[in-house]
Specification:
The protein is of the alpha+beta class. The chain has four helices and eight strands. The longest helix is centred in the N-terminal third of the chain and has 21 residues, at 2-22.
Length: 198
Amino acid sequence: MRSARRLVLAAATGLAGVLALSGCGVPPSGVIQAGEPATGMPAGITVFFLSSTGSLVGVPRFSPPDLATAVDLLFQGPTSDEAPELSTRLPKLPALPEVEAKDGTILIRVPPGVARFTPPAMQQLVCTAATAYRVEPDSAAHRQAGTPRVPTFPPVPVPAPGVGGSVPTGLAVPPMVSIHVVGARWAQIEVGHPCGLG
C-alpha cells in the first residue's frame, strides 16, 4: 500500500510540475533560426598611437590580420572614444597608401603632397606595420605570386605589459623588419623597432 501511495504522490507531483511549467505564459513556437554558430573572436591587429606622454600604445582592432588593413586603420587615427587619451602624428592622407611586403622588407608608398614623417609618426608606422607583418597569414605580394610567405626570422615573444603597458601579452614580432616609406620626393627607412619590441 505504501508503494502505491508513493507512486500516486510522485505522479501527482510530476503532473503539478508539468502544469506549472506549461502555464508560465510563454507561447509555443517553432524552431527559431539563430544564424551560424559562433567560432570565437575575430582575428585582430594592433595599431600604435601615442599617449599624452608620447609613449606608444598598442590598440587592438578586430579586423583580419592584414598588413595593408593595419596601415589603413593606423592612418585613420584613434576613434572618437580613444581620442581623449590617444593621438597620432601621422597625417590624414588624401588616398590610401600602397603597401607591399617581401622577405622582411615593407614598402609603404604615400600619395603625392604628403610631407616626411616626424620620428613619432615613423615609430607608430614601424610598430604597426612590423606587428601586422608578423601576424599576417601571408603577404599581399606573395598572395599575388601564389606562394605562401615563409618568415625568414624567428618570432620574439614580447613581455607582458606593465602599468599602462602598450603591447598585448604574448604577441610575437620579427626581430628585424625594414620599413621603407616613400613619398613623391622623399624616402625614409627604419630598421628594427623604435617602439622597443625587438
